[in-house]
Amino acid sequence: MLIYWLASSVQVDGKSGLQKSDSIVSKYVPESISTREISGTEASYRLPQYRVEKFGTMFQEFETFLEVGSKGITDYGISLTTLEEV
């Protein structure tokens, strides 16, 4: 099974950004697995491939949040599992 990784970056004091990021991801991919980076400014999520049809709508919500310019999420990106990770 393919696994996608979504990374969401937030402002340094971004507790609300992490909560918003968690909220968006769990809304569209409830079975996602969340991990936090040591710095506390990035959240990573494992997203199962069978939910790929929900990704577009989820990205639109991330984009809307970024366009508003409010504090919190500053960036996001997605990648596939590499062969080394398998």
Overall description:
This protein has 86 residues and is of the alpha+beta class. It is built from 2 helices and 4 strands; from the N terminus they run βαββαβ. The protein has a 4-stranded antiparallel beta sheet with strand order 2-3-1-4.
Concise overview:
This protein is of the alpha+beta class and about 90 residues long. Helices cover about 35% and strands about 30% of the residues.
Detail the topology: elements first, then pairings.
Elements: E1 3-10, H1 15-28, E2 33-36, E3 42-48, H2 55-68, E4 73-80
Antiparallel strand pairs: 1-3, 1-4, 2-3
Helix pairs in contact: 1-2
List keywords for this structure.
alpha+beta; Alpha-Beta Plaits; 2 helices; 4 strands
The name of the CATH topology is: Alpha-Beta Plaits
Note the beta-strand portion.
25-35%
Q: Biggest sheet: strands, sense, closure?
A: 4 strands, antiparallel
N-to-C series of helices and strands: EHEEHE
> Number of DSSP strands?
4
**CATH architecture identity:** 2-Layer Sandwich
Proportion in helices: 25-40%
| Structural classification | alpha+beta
**First-residue to last-residue Cα separation:** 10 Å
Number of contiguous helices:
2
Biggest sheet strand order reads 2-3-1-4
